[in-house]
From TrEMBL:
CDD domains for the chain: AdoMet_MTases
InterPro entries with a match to the protein in the record: Methyltransf_11, SAM-dependent_MTases_sf
Keywords: Methyltransferase, Transferase
Annotated segments matching region Disordered: 1-29
All residue ranges annotated as the Methyltransferase type domain in the record: 101-200
Compositional bias (Basic and acidic residues): 1-14
Domain of life per record: Bacteria
A molecular-function term among this protein's GO annotations: S-adenosylmethionine-dependent methyltransferase activity
Protein name listed in UniProt: Methyltransferase family protein
Pfam families reported for this sequence: Methyltransf_11 (PF08241)
One BP annotation, GO: methylation
Length: 272
């Protein structure tokens, strides 16, 4: 695990947060339009088997192997535990009441892994079916605490639904499916608002290293065709975005050059 060293210049961050970063990408209306485009794939897809497989539904497609399905959440828990020990030096971290938020729980493997460790587990998704499935698997042994948050169109849907600041933020294999880089920036800004000062975050993304297969789309019209690999960020670019929003102690781990996956672990600044 190692820290990144370079960050995107301020003018590059400004582009990402304005319409220059990607045509049609500005906060507000554009976020709603992008969410609507994503819903066509992840909430209202005519091919339900395809949607469930790519949303990691237990027992569907690649996830008929239950151990493989469980491994998604187990891997997230292992990575977060390692980071928690390093940055908090608190061996009793989970003995205190903790609240958690996941963006894009899909079929619920992460929620399943953390279900007995947290008081409340907020799951933000654009698909009601995904939220229903996550609630089902997270409560199958009687465990309560999952709080479904349906993102209809506005990012305010999320902010208004979180009862109190959360201790942990998690998102795995989701940012790559966002309709644009700017969309991901808006999500991270939302996370900054609901995460406690000193709270811990973990995000898995696709990184852009010039490989055409993982090049981010330039227009929303491309999303339907390229939704699996719609968004990626250069390693230093995403590091800079996190810093600009108000996160620190940023670490990069889990870099996989075969499929361009990488994971960022970070904390919310106390005074930001």
């Amino acid at each position: 695990m190692s820290k990144a060293i370079d960050t995107k210049p301020a003018d590059e961050m400004a582009k990402l947060n304005s319409s220059e970063g990607q045509k049609g990408e500005t906060p507000g209306t554009a976020f709603e339009e992008a969410t609507a485009a994503a819903k066509k794939i992840w909430a209202n897809n005519e091919n339900e088997e395809y949607r469930k497989d790519n949303s990691h539904f237990r027992g569907v497609g690649r996830w008929t192997d239950d151990e493989r399905w469980k491994s998604i959440g187990k891997n997230s828990l292992t990575a977060l535990n390692r980071h928690i020990r390093m940055v908090t030096n608190d061996p009793f971290y989970w003995t205190q009441e903790r609240n958690m938020l996941e963006w894009g729980p899909g079929g619920g493997s992460n929620a399943y892994a953390f279900r007995k460790l947290v008081q409340y587990y907020y799951g933000v998704d654009i698909s009601q079916d995904n939220l229903n499935e996550t609630e089902r698997v997270a409560s199958e042994d009687g465990t309560q605490g999952f709080v479904p948050v349906l993102l209809n169109s506005s990012i305010d849907d999320v902010i208004k639904s979180v009862r109190e600041p959360v201790d942990i933020f998690l998102s795995t294999a989701v940012f790559q499916h966002f309709p644009s880089k700017a969309y991901g920036v808006e999500v991270l800004k939302c996370v900054h608002q609901v995460l406690k000062p000193g709270g811990i975050g973990m995000v898995q993304i696709r990184f852009d290293n010039g490989n055409p297969k993982y090049k981010p789309i330039a227009e929303l019209e491309e999303y339907h065709e390229k939704h699996i690999t719609a968004t990626s960020y250069a390693l230093d670019e995403f590091f800079g975005i996190l810093q600009e929003i108000g996160f620190y102690e940023i670490f990069i781990t889990g870099l996989n050059r075969d499929i361009n996956y990488v994971t960022y672990l970070f904390r919310r600044k106390n005074n930001a």
